[in-house]
# Entry
Amino acid sequence: MPAFLLPDLGEGLTEAEIAGWHVQVGDTVAIDQIVVEVETAKAVVEIPVPFAGEVSILHGKVGEVINVGSPLITVTAPATLSDSASGNVLIGYGTPDSARRRRRRNGAAAAVASPVSAPANANSAGRAGDRIPVVSPIVRRLARDAGLELRSIEGSGADGLITRQDVERAVQSHRESNGIDPPPAISASPAGQDQHPVGPDVVRIPIRGLRKTVADKLARSRREIPEATVWVDVDATGLLEFRASLNADQSAPKISLLALISRFTVLALQRYPELNSRIEGEEIVVNPTVNLGFAAQTDRGLMVPVVPAANALSIEQLSNALAERTARARDGRLTPAELTGGTFTVNNYGVFGVDGSAAIINHPEVGILGIGRIIDRPWVVDGQVVPRRVTELTLAFDHRVCDGGVAGGFLRFIADCVESPSHALRHL
Amino acid sequence: MGTTCPRRWERIVTSAAVARTHAPSLLPSAEPLGLLRLDGSIDSGSELSMPSDEVLSTLHRRIVLGRRFDAQATALTKQGRLAVYPSARGQEAGEIGAVMALREQDWLFPTYRDSMAVVARGVDPVEVLTLLRGDWHCGYDPYEHRVGPQCTPLATNALHAVGLAHAAKVKGEDTVALVMLGDGATSEGDTHEALNFAAVWKSPVVFFVQNNGYAISVPLAKQTAAPSLAHKGIGYGIPSMLIDGNDVAAVYAAVNKAVAAAAAGGGPTLIEAITYRIEAHTNADDATRYRDRAEVEFWLQRDPLDRIRRHLVDRGLLDDEAIAEIDAAAEAEAATLRERMNVDTQLDPSDLFRHVYAEQTETLRRQAADLAAELALSKE
Amino acid sequence: MTTVAEPAVRPMANPSPVTMAAALNRALADALHEDERVLVLGEDVGTLGGVFRVTDGLAAQFGENRVFDTPLAESAIVGTAIGMAMNGLRPVVEMQFDAFAYPAFEQITSHLAKLRNRTRGRVALPIVIRIPYGGGIGGVEHHCDSSEVYYTHTAGLRVVTPGSPADAYSLLRQAIDSPDPVIFLEPKRRYWSKESAPLTQSDLRLDQACVRRAGTDVTLISYGGALGTALEAAEAAEDEGRSVEVVDLRSLSPFDDATAAASVRRTGRAIVIHEASRFCGYGAEVAARLSEQCFHYLEAPILRVAGFDIPYPPPNLEQHHLPSVDRILDAIDSLQWQETGARRATVGA
# Structure
């Protein structure tokens, strides 16, 4: 039973007053028969009904004002007429849109935790709420990449503008990571708290620079991520033999153990892509590219250089990349860009002589693979207890992005590759 | 140089004087020319040549169909199917008579009110109504029936008509361009420029002015002080005719004559057809604000359809049966139009970015992609 | 309709210097010769050969059917050209001066720009509207405007402007060949500038910009009459130890993002230079676009050196209004050089 809605009768009109009906309920009307006269802001208009049939409802009395888009008259269509079967509800032009549905906004990438957005520098003449002015976008980014907080940098430009020299100076002093300047107020312990150790032998080490950055990140990881850990012992004898045979070729660059395990990790991430993701707001964003970070202990502290697009590298290429970055990390020559953008981390803490570790996930990644020391342990082979080269692999993962099945599967895959490298060939 | 200059100047002066002597022949008649009186009888003293019976019958039929189309479009607008519809009711003689006098190879340049004429020319009615529906700014291929897009900026297409006709002449093609103008449009600068260029270039153009008494609400008396709009022709050196615009036989005859003159190399003609706009300017207009019912009634007595029908009936060329058949045909066309117009069109927003240039630019490609992405999000 | 049988003159190996006006003249002649659909029309273009002699000799060579004078009515000149193009011809229309085109603005924006779109591609209007524009010739009132943004802001129009005689030839030939309507802005102050270059169709497309002068420190972006000033400023900056790159836009609409952005990403600094008023001028679009595309590469804000926001001055004061070499050098100096510690290149390096 189609209702004829009041159309816009004149380029943007919104309503009309019923001036007079030409029909009554029960009358039979033909298509285009004039059924009503309405008065708009511009004119009196006679309106023809677009369908034929019996008038069943008049949606207003004489003198009533009806909005454009509201029902005007309802006509019961006789079964025989085909026009009425169209059931089209007619809407006039310029009818105010029933509030246009708001669409989903483009998922803007949640900004990586950045120390840069900060309240106005005390030296700045800017108004409260302004961003801290930096002389150029490039310099602003330099500061961010170096992990510096703008509010800790004193601007030497006009009105406290932070210049490139200011940032370069700040970067330099943080690299040296021993305090030249007195520590900023925030990191000092607040006065009036209980039981400070005092005395001439008490050593106070400020948490600043790289150490502070790392500390903040670790704290955040543990604070935000509900992580779980799975671990497994694996017989690495086969892997070591495999590596030995690879490196038998004296002319070729040496393939490291870390490289091999990293390659297995990359393969595993391709099979279990949830572990190569990050959480943004209410979404898990899965990255098809593996930017593999690996923990490197340097004189300055813990660093995690990143090999970008590790999934596109061969074992040899990966090995070279790892070696090269390790060397530069030791020399302090890594650029800020090379320390960011990772999607998964491998952590060979076995060099410290320990077996297992519930490692802290490198936020905002969702998983970290740990590799323990490789030592002789008793192992059962064909029913016999024999010494094998055994190591422990651990996976700490963000339980929000996957369940134990995925985590276990991931770790098992790597373990299988370690125990039998030829297993990995299938997936190369 | 020394001797040729004075002679050349003399020739110019002489020929100008001759032109001035013959100038009065360019003027229109004092009274509008007609062929059929109000009662349908023939005015045998007319300067115009009566069209054949066959033509008269066709004109009658087309007027019936045209009027029915116009009424249906008006109804559809009041039902919200068209954004706006400027009706030509009452002007059927001009709409139909002028178009019927064009040959297939000629061009028609209509305004926004001339939907009836464009349909009579052969363009699909739904295509004609595309613009008024709001789906696209022109719904038909101009080259298919040689009809320019419906022109909203008045008189600007008069220049297009002149240019097209000039090109035809340059190419040696037999093409006449007819441009439709209203009384208001004759005040626009482009009308003046078009008349001037057409006269200087001797372009094969017919300027067909339908003087329906009003430009929306502004009456003729406020539009011009000229004795008639046709009188403007002499200023350009263009022969002009003043005719009864509600006499379809006269309209046909006058346009026919002008087309023939143009085709024969005689240059442009200016025709003013006196008629009346029965409906308001559009559905959004309230005509009672500027004219009274009595005036409308006066012109309803001069209905163009009545006149031609009476003539044909009196001469035994039309009977009730034939009229019923024509009415039925008109109803059928109206029903088809309703059916087709009551279907919602599916518009493709990416069309917006096509046909801005011959080849889509990089910027447009990106903007089209941005819009597509937005729409994809809205669908979720 | 007759065409002349003479072949177009082939360019010589070592061409003698040719002015921009002559280059344009040659382009018209070659186009008229190669395509019988091409027409040239406008005020005084026939017998007189144009007030700047750009159409000199063409009426005599090709006849009055193809090169002819119109009555004095700009709207009609463009409007009838539209009708001619609808009927298969390719009119090349001349507007005598920049501001004289305003009566034709309606025809240009309501019809020329829109008919292809309105008819979904069925009606093409391959029309070129040649407009001498800009100042710097001591012209009196109403003769020196730069109205490019009215046209660049109108979708459906192409707007191009040559900076050199060789480019004038190439761009005009390509404009005449284009299926789209082209507003062809001729910098009248450069009509008499000379260049020794063969007049051929360049490899560059109608919508491409080009780097006129390579440099590393800053990009000057300009077009038309101001291009010459930009090049002069680049030379002067060299003496002060700066390496300046100059981009000649050539096409104002569409805009060649690729060329301009690539340059700014390399140099990190940009200045747009034009005669027209700064407010809502062409430079505003360039600056906004390049800011969006090159934000992270920028060492300084993108500046504009442009005319003041005033009606075009009288001849005796115009030198204060037009971008000058000194103004451009001042702008270059203000681009925050201490930030990069950019070493000034040694002279002669």
